[in-house]
Design goal:
Elements (H helix, E strand, L loop, with lengths): L3 H8 L5 E7 L4 H8 L4 E6 L4 E5 L5 H7 L5 H13 L5 E3 L5 E4 L19 E2 L3 E6 L2 E6 L2 E5 L2 E4 L5 H11 L4 E7 L3 H7 L9 H9 L3 E4 L6 E3 L4 E14 L2 E2 L5 E2 L2 E14 L4 E4 L6 H8 L3 H11 L3 E6 L8 E6 L6 H12 L5 E6 L7 H11 L2 H4 E8 L11 E9 L17
Parallel strand pairs: 1-2, 3-18, 4-12, 20-21, 21-23
Antiparallel strand pairs: 2-3, 5-17, 6-9, 7-8, 7-11, 9-10, 10-17, 11-14, 12-13, 14-17, 15-16, 19-20, 22-23
Helix pairs in contact: 4-7, 4-9, 6-7, 9-10
Organism: Thermogladius calderae
Family: Belongs to the UbiD family.
Pfam families: UbiD, UbiD_C
């Protein structure tokens, strides 16, 4: 189990960590992370209470190390076990882990990341809500308005459903906003299991820590590994949220969103406040968008292509819109079936490229080479029109768009000698 605190202790002992000292909350964290993409970055917000950690997931090797696996297949199987068999949660005493503090929203590590952003943001806030016996944990960006008010972006998923149902009954929705969670709970909160499956149980299965505590006012279960817990309500009031630079490096539009109003703040008794500062459109953002989807794509593809080797949502597509699948094909049509299965596993994907097992899915040059040498556009390029798509894609603003499939595998009935890339002597 690696808490955010133990991870910070570990990275501070390593030579591949950049300690930036105190930074201004406007733009400086973004500049430092862009300047040191190959290092974990540690900093404090000037005049603030928080130690911030960025670039936790610099590469796939970091992911393997944090999840104690030897490769992607082992990683996917570990995540899928937790996804389908969440751990039972054990409720402990809240006062053993947290103490109430006299905070306002001004005391939280809000950062303005880009000039295009409409304000100061929290990017790793996780909101936990319970309604009619169902609990949900999910990421939501939070924009600062005042010391007692913030807006959060809620897309039409489970929390949206809870908020809508609560507001339609004339009630605000009680929630707990948590900061400084461990990476396992972060990954779980970035997943989208069926409604009724509590993501905290998935995180507990991944981490081995099943203890939660119930907040004093609203009795909402939160993981004991949180650094700060903020009880509050998602009110029926709305304010403007955005613009905000999203995972594709584009400025998302300004829109009216629900207002979050804090009620009480609780700080960990374990030490200093630590925060995962996710700089939008950088490696941490890519990992927490793409990694939760890859195991589901892998599972879907494996049903039709037992020889699937690797799945990757590429950073060029924001780890969301472009996927590369490598397979060891054994039957005609298998590559196309693999592509269609990948789209089933992740319907937001816009482009799927299927390659042979000798092509490194993490090397764009190898993928381009496979397209150049193994695909025949008249036969291997397929466009599916009018399919469900991602609203992150500016060409699919209403959630409907086109899909592109590229089959870049060797024809099954032709010899490898014709297609195998030579190695340097």
């Amino acid at each position: 189990m690696t808490t955010l605190r133990s991870l910070l202790d570990s990275v501070l002992k390593r030579s591949d960590t950049y300690v930036a000292g105190e930074l201004e909350a406007e733009y400086e964290p973004t500049r430092i992370v862009y300047k040191h993409p190959d290092k974990r970055v540690v900093f404090r917000i000037k005049d603030g209470k928080w130690i911030c950690l960025s670039n936790i997931f610099r590469s796939r090797l970091d992911v393997h190390e944090l999840f104690n696996v030897r490769g992607d297949v082992e990683l996917y199987e570990k995540i899928l076990r937790a996804y389908y068999s969440p751990a039972p949660l054990e409720v402990d005493d809240f006062d053993k882990y947290y103490a109430r503090v006299d905070f306002t929203l001004r005391d939280l590590p809000f950062i303005r990341f880009y000039r295009e952003d409409g304000g100061m943001y929290l990017t790793s806030a996780i909101f936990i809500a319970c309604l009619e016996g169902v609990c949900n944990s999910s990421f939501h960006r939070v924009m600062y308005i005042s010391e007692d008010k913030a807006t959060l972006r809620i897309v039409p998923r489970h929390l949206y459903y809870m908020v809508k149902k609560s507001h339609e009954s004339g009630k605000d929705l009680p929630v707990a906003m948590v900061l400084g969670l461990d990476v396992y709970q972060e990954l779980a909160s970035a997943m989208s299991p069926p409604y009724g499956v509590f993501e905290v149980g998935i995180g507990a299965a991944l981490s081995g820590v099943s203890k939660v505590v119930k907040t004093p006012v609203f009795k909402i279960p939160v993981p004991v590994t949180s650094t700060l817990v903020v009880e509050g309500i998602i009110s029926r009031e709305e304010e403007w949220e955005g613009p905000f630079v999203d995972i594709l490096g584009l400025a998302d539009e300004r829109r009216k969103q629900p207002v979050f109003k804090p009620v009480a703040y609780y700080s960990t008794l374990a030490g200093e406040l630590i925060y995962h500062a996710i700089v939008p459109a950088t490696s941490d953002h890519f990992a927490l968008m793409g990694l939760p989807r890859e195991p589901l794509i892998y599972e879907s593809v494996r049903r039709v292509s037992p020889g699937v080797k690797k799945v990757r949502l590429s950073s060029g597509g924001g780890s969301w819109l472009i996927g590369v699948i490598s397979i060891e094909q054994s039957t005609r049509g298998e590559a196309l079936n693999a592509a269609l299965a990948a789209l089933t596993g992740h319907p937001s994907m816009k482009v799927v490229v299927v390659v042979d097992e000798d092509v490194d899915v993490d090397d764009p040059l190898q993928v381009e080479w496979a397209i150049a040498t193994r695909s025949k556009p008249g036969e291997d390029v397929i466009v599916l029109r009018g399919a469900k798509a991602s609203t992150l894609d500016p060409r699919s603003p209403n959630g409907v768009g086109d899909k592109l499939i590229i089959i870049a595998t060797k024809p099954l009935d032709e010899p490898w000698s014709k297609y195998r890339r030579v190695n340097p002597p």
